[in-house]
Sequence to fold (114 residues):
Amino acid sequence: VQLVESGGGLVQPGGSLRLSCAASGFTLSNIWMHWVRQAPGKGLEWVSSIYTGDRSETYYADSVKGRFTLSRDNAKNTLYLQMNRLNTEDTALYYCAFISANYWGQGTQVTVSS
Fold:
């Protein structure tokens, strides 16, 4: 079982990034998946969640609502987190997680700086 995040990097304020979370060893189907981030020197912060059933549901933290969009590609068994209008407070290590099974990726670093 593996979750592999990618797509992080350095971006200027106002810019965009798309993070990917590729799952292997299990199927992203009928489960809750989450993105969680950790800013330097701070604890874990929930960012967004998606239910990967037929009636998909997504939820967002107030801090990212309207800027971030969580989606999935069933064929690729992959989640995507589209992040727009990034600001310096979005700088963090971003993790993809199947929390109920305690599966976590290694994280991908997002740095927003001019």
